[in-house]
Amino acid sequence: MKNSFKCIFLIFSLFFLVSCKRESDSNGNVLNMALSGEVSTLDPANAYDTISASVIYQSYEQLYEYHYLKRPYTIIPLLAQEMPIVENNGKRYTIKIKKGVRYHDDPCFNGKERFVTAQDFINQIKRLAFKGTNSNGWWLFDGKIVGINKFRDEVETDFEKFKSMNIEGLKATDDQTLVIDLVEPFPQMLFALTMSFTSPMPMEAIETYKNLLNDRMIGTGPYQMDKYNPLSGVKLVRNPYFRKTLYPEEGDRMANSMNLLKDAGKQIPFIDAIQFQIIKESQTRWLNFMAKKVDVLSIPKDNFESAIDPTGNLTSQLKKEGIQLQIFPTLTYWWLSFNMKDPLLGKNKNLRLAIAHAINTDSYIDTFTNSIGQKANSIYPPGIPGYNPSATLPYKFDLKIAKEYLSKAGFPDGKGIPELTFDVRGTSSTHRQQAEFVKRELERIGINVKIVLNTFPAFLEKARFGKLQFWQDGWALDYPDAENVLQLLISKNHPPGPNATYYSNEVFNNLYEKIRTIPEGEEKWNLMGKMENIINEDMPWVMLYYARNYILFQKRLNNYRHSDVIYNNIKYLKLDAQ
Fold first, then answer.
1. Which DSSP category does 335 fall into?
2. Phi, psi of 335 (to 5 degrees)
3. pLDDT tens for residues 491-506?
């Protein structure tokens, strides 16, 4: 019976691969991308996950972007005509906006051409502040722009007031000039203006769709939406009215060594369409990649040995296929989070310490990253200024110590402890296996765990409303600055902001207010250390690992350079003719 099944499976697999190859042959100038879960939203005011970002940055543009071929990351104008004029001791930004930037056609424009104005950026920042949007991007400007908090408090959820009331610190002095007045210097301002949260939004769209923009994109970028199905994926097609934009003409040493400047000065985008397919299971993504039905793939853990030989290079089989490999450290990392308002976990530090000592992080990394992940030693990831490679965490895997802390918590050998709820951030087999790993680890010291499966959008919704108790969390930095890590833990960023743990510490909050206005240097790095000590003392997180990416891409794909920060990269990519 087993041998017969294997034969049938082999025949089916061969048929699958051949049929997929035939389909890929007809793809032409279409890039095929796999998404590991559902797109949670297409609204730039609420998109705050890597899956949604990989889609919306192809359609929405911002005032500034990162240079595609330079490291360290360099910010350059995108919809801005030039870099801002900064005055008033760093508190006033005057930004000239490019003329003739046309929005994608949309029914809200009643068949008319619509071009970007300075007011459109003000509209979007108002959307972040408007409580009716319930934006998880509000943290970005909370308390930073003159009058923005007054606007938020007075408007509340009144849509008519939202439209009519102005924010004192935001002015459009003419259609192409935006002036932003800050309460105090904000060194991360340019980073903020590269983020999708600050994409321009025409008032016609806000009014027509009553501020509900989860399922449409009205951007200015090189690609516009053609089809969208929340369960299967998104198709984007080339924007026929995209302004003349050229491929970069310079890059760093790596860009030159990777031959990424051969298209320098040519008009972009090169690709006609992008097909984002939702493929939750890693094995299915692998089969699609091997069938040339997916163009880029982060190697799944179960296929690592099929792709990488013992020396760390591509296997000879993949080399014959012309498949290419890029290996990059990332600004993405993972930990376990506790809801600090939870009456059990949040109020019992000894219980949190018991859990921290019960998790075999080395085994977790071996199991779920093929030993690629780097064991975390800090709340900060490598790659940001001030990261300390010699930092240590106040816990380690030790079941004896874990049981001692569990007794101190009032639950010797787990007696009397209620069942914990561990929410999973997706429905794939990997997500389930990660949860089962945590469950087994804690059972060894007498803690029972109930696993709750969620779709990724449902998980994010629970996080936004503070409905999680215990979960695996992670972060892909928006910009390479410690402030972007620390804002995850300040009180004013409680849900719907990014502080899903509800962690609150007044000393920490006060240090954050200081550190966010300090430029890079010894003073800032010393403060980073003090703030990390507070987190290590209070234990809202149990750190796991820093990710490292092994990215495969097909022979036909050119100009590919992986980045954790640059999401609008598809406009630079090019496909060889089939």
1. E
2. -155, 175
3. 999 988 889 999 999 9
CB-neighbour burial class of residue 232 (10 A; exposed 0-12, middle 13-18, buried 19+): middle
SS3 (DSSP) at 172: strand
Kindly report, residue by residue over 317-354, the tens digit of the pLDDT: 999 999 999 988 788 899 999 999 999 999 999 999 99
Structural domain for 138, as ranges? 62-215
Answer yes or no: are the C-beta atoms of 274 and 235 closer than 8 Å: yes
| CATH of residue 111 | 3.90.76.10
Domain count for the chain:
2
pLDDT in the model for residue 14: 40
Distance (Å, rounded) from C-alpha 225 to C-alpha 217?
7
Beta bridge partners of 450: 421
Place of tokens 């299967």: 232
Q: How many helices (H) and strands (E) does the chain have?
A: 19, 21
Contact 500, 473 (CB under 8 A): yes
The domain boundary, picked from 215, 249, 279, lies at: 215
**pLDDT reading at 415 higher than 50:** yes
Q: In sequence order, what are the residues at sequence separation of 6 or more whose Cβ sits closer than 8 angstroms to the Cβ of residue 517? A: 184, 185, 186, 187
CA distances in angstroms from 411 to 357, 401, 403, 418, listed in the order given? 15, 14, 9, 10
- With respect to residue 573, please indicate whether it lies within any of the assigned structural domains: no
pTM of the predicted structure, to 2 decimals: 0.80
Element (H, E) at 354: helix 349-358
470-476 vs 324-338, strand pairing mode: antiparallel
Q: Contact, 27 vs 294, CB < 8 A?
A: no
- Which residue bears the tokens 């050229």? 246
